[in-house]
Write a structure and sequence with these properties.
Layout lengths: L6 H6 L19 H22 L2 H8 L3 H7 L3 H19 L9 H18 L1 H12 L9 H20 L8 H17 L1 H7 L10 H15 L4
Helix pairs in contact: 2-3, 2-5, 2-7, 3-4, 6-9, 6-11, 7-9
Length: 226
């Protein structure tokens, strides 16, 4: 995602990605408890082992089901995995959007950073599924990259608009966004390292407000936003 998409890519890219659609999101009320258990089990297994290292037997065991019972509700692990990847990207698109016409980039970026941090703290396993997929080569993300580039370009355009209006210093908007992603997702993907460096027990909760304040001040200061 280092280079902006060319006009041909933008024109051929669907304008939006639908909300996740699969067995996890289509469960009827009578099935919701079981599907919730399957979803939680799949998230844990995929975050620990990735798609290749996860078996349907492991998901069934963690969900408290037999393998035949699991396959009554799902066709296979691949559809669960694809739905979870789609959920991650859909949430990032919907939750982490910001107003391109806002006159206060400091407020917009501060809110964006807080939301990204909250997602990292509240959904670390989901974040790790995405990161593990990227580390494994990202083959299962290929269908999602065009939309991800489009959403990123909209944020880049907003930041460039602020720069043109003299609301922040000139910089590479795409690199700024990627730096924010790296600094916020670190608290999900490197949660263990964070606690080791802070001298905390492995299961100790982190105080997110001091982290948010420090990160926001760092980013806004670097952008010359008061």
């Amino acid at each position: 995602m280092n280079a902006p998409p060319d006009s041909a890519t933008l024109e051929s890219t669907p304008p939006d990605m639908p909300a996740p659609d699969g067995p996890l999101s289509r469960a009827r009320p009578g099935r919701e408890r079981i599907m919730a258990a399957i979803r939680a089990a799949a998230i844990t297994e995929f975050s620990l082992n990735g798609l290749k290292g996860t078996s349907t037997q492991a998901i069934a065991d963690r969900a408290g089901l037999t393998k035949p019972q699991l396959h009554y509700y799902i066709a296979g692990k691949e559809e669960l995995y694809q739905e979870l990847l789609m959920q991650v990207l859909h949430e990032w698109k919907v939750v982490f959007a910001f107003d391109a016409h806002a006159n206060e980039p400091g407020a917009v970026l501060a809110d964006y950073i807080r939301k990204k941090l909250d997602h990292a703290f509240d959904n670390p396993e989901i974040s790790r599924i995405f990161t593990r997929e990227v580390l494994d080569g990202g083959r299962n993300l290929e269908q999602f990259w065009p939309n991800s580039r489009l959403w990123t370009q909209k944020k880049v355009d907003a930041i460039n608009n602020w720069i043109a209006r003299g609301l922040m210093r000139p910089l590479d908007a795409r690199l700024l966004l990627m730096h924010i992603w790296a600094m916020t997702q670190s608290y999900a993907d490197y949660a263990l390292q964070t606690r080791v460096m802070l001298g905390l027990p492995f299961d100790a909760p982190l105080e997110r407000e001091p982290i948010a304040q420090e990160l926001i001040a760092f980013v806004l200061g670097g952008c010359h936003i008061r």
